[in-house]
Amino acid sequence: MHAYDHVLAGERPTLHETRALGAWLYEQQKFPQEYIQALMGHADEKMTKHYQEGHDEKKIEYLEVGAELAF
Asked: Which residue, 5, 9, 19, 45, is most buried by CB atoms nearer than 10 A?
């Protein structure tokens, strides 16, 4: 399995990041929280919710800067 050999090791998603994204995607598809919790193997809903956090679209902030190029 060398599908991501071209991606630096530090930039590849971890197992936990992939699991968390999966839990969030199930939530977005309106699967019951109890189902997602069982799928993840979590003992309580609090841990499942923790995994589902942080996947919403983030706002992009733009900062205008001068290049100060010499001609």
From this structure: 19
